[in-house]
Amino acid sequence: MAGSGSVSFFLFLSLLLNFSTTHVNSNEQGYISFDISNKGLDFIKQFLVQMAETSLVPLDLPKIEKSKHIPLIGTVNMLISNLSINKIHVISSTVKAGDTGIVISVSGAYANMTMNWGYEYSNWWLPVPVMDSGVASIQVEGMDVGISFNLTNNQGSLMLTPLDCGCSVKDIFIKLNGGASWLYQGLIEVFEGRLTSAVENAISKKLRQGIVKLDSLLQSLPKEIPIRNIGALNVTFVGDPQLRDSSLILSINGLISAREAHAAPAYPHLFASLEHLLASIPLKDPASMVTISLHEKVLTSASSVYYDANKMHWIVDKIPEQSLLNTAGWRFIIPQLYRRYPNDDMNLNVSIYSPPHPKIDDDQIDLTIHADVVINVLNSGEVTPVACFSMIVSGSASPWISKNSLGGSIGLDEFYLSLKWSKIGNFHVNLVRVLMSTALRTVILPYINIKLARGYPLPTFHGYMLQNAKILCSDSWIKICSDVAAVKQLSIS
Ligand SMILES: *[C@@H]1O[C@H](CO)[C@@H](O)[C@H](O)[C@H]1NC(C)=O
Ligand SMILES: *[C@@H]1O[C@H](CO)[C@@H](O)[C@H](O)[C@H]1NC(C)=O
Ligand SMILES: *[C@@H]1O[C@H](CO)[C@@H](O)[C@H](O)[C@H]1NC(C)=O
Ligand SMILES: *[C@@H]1O[C@H](CO)[C@@H](O)[C@H](O)[C@H]1NC(C)=O
Ligand SMILES: *[C@@H]1O[C@H](CO)[C@@H](O)[C@H](O)[C@H]1NC(C)=O
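^ thats the input. predicted complex w/ 2-acetamido-2-deoxy-beta-D-glucopyranose below
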């Protein structure tokens, strides 16, 4: 086995890393879990806050009408209308996860509003009623907002339930464009309290609606993610999310099963807007945001799906020791092969005949491959199978992640070879075994290891990728501790 085919050890891993964006203790077993640390929660919070800043505006408030007696003027009917919050600036916010759900608090935010004002009064001494109108800008300062919600598992989807939502405003400053001198004081006296409560109510209501919207979005997310047209990753949530000490643990089923060709995921718009929002969030803290744990059963399920999809066959016609793919290279080991087909090129048809079951051990992944290798002789355009060997190769892979690349090394533990059939008579299988095993250890594996040492770039997910990732293997689990960062941000730093 050589060339592209032998990279199959790593194929499973890279396949899985395709989905590393968003971990496992519950009665039901999840095979992939995400332990989102304080820092990760902070990232999600910043994301939610930015989303709120943009989705809350423009926020239209109902008009307010009131009459007031003004000395020397009389009773004035005043109206403020077309009230709109145009911008909200959040200065500081915190997130806490605990038994009572997730609480996000924002303090000292401010907002800019505009409105139209108008008044009218009439008196017996006036020939016609007096009226005037204009616009005003309003600054809302010292806004504290608290929102809490419960995160639970509803039939395999995450469900957000708003628990509490409140907003309080400290100060409101109104700046009138135009108007009479008495009007300003009048407006303040009449509307200040009402405006404050209108802003507080509107924001609480809109945030609650926001959570309901986010919830329906979460519930509508697919339960499966297609993988290269042959399988699907089961992303059904398993067990309730665990909230503790400001960390959040989510588990998904995580197994891969065979599927017919799938359509592309139906959420491009959603992801595009998420990308846009997420791209602006800076990261500083060195602690990892998320630990992704992956059980060896995930690898086994991927391996079975690949196997069932007939993807474990390779024609090997290029190896680092190309002389082994010519009958001349076998002249002294299988003399009859050379005699019958002198100086003909050969290729190897490698078929793995049972799905490999990777085992995750301390710092390595052990794998045993059972394969049939048919030797084909290529003679003037004709492919003639001449012999078939049954081969068992066991080895281990030690993966690492460095600078956004996944790499590793492969070691060979055992190698067995037996002859299955031959069209060129009997020969010394022992010699063939020694030659092949030597070629594997001294030429082919070193060659593959040089390639693996260069590493493969970690896949990105909708503009996001793992950053500062570390990979640890032990006791059936692979753990990847990582930050998540926008690809754009990475290219700048
Ligand atoms: C309402 O306010 C917006 C600005 O927030 C302004 O563009 C619009 O013209 C106003 N509508 C009326 C009827 O005054
Ligand atoms: C949140 O959900 C969990 C799991 O369903 C439940 O045990 C808990 O009582 C809920 N908390 C609140 C405050 O509703
Ligand atoms: C918005 O409000 C802030 C503080 O309340 C103020 O400094 C800023 O000038 C306002 N912006 C506009 C466009 O009115
Ligand atoms: C996906 O995982 C869930 C939860 O473990 C399980 O109930 C469901 O049967 C799985 N779906 C498939 C198609 O295997
Ligand atoms: C490779 O060998 C398998 C049997 O081991 C056979 O079914 C298949 O057709 C062969 N493929 C080629 C391209 O020779």
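The longest strand covers residues 130-154.
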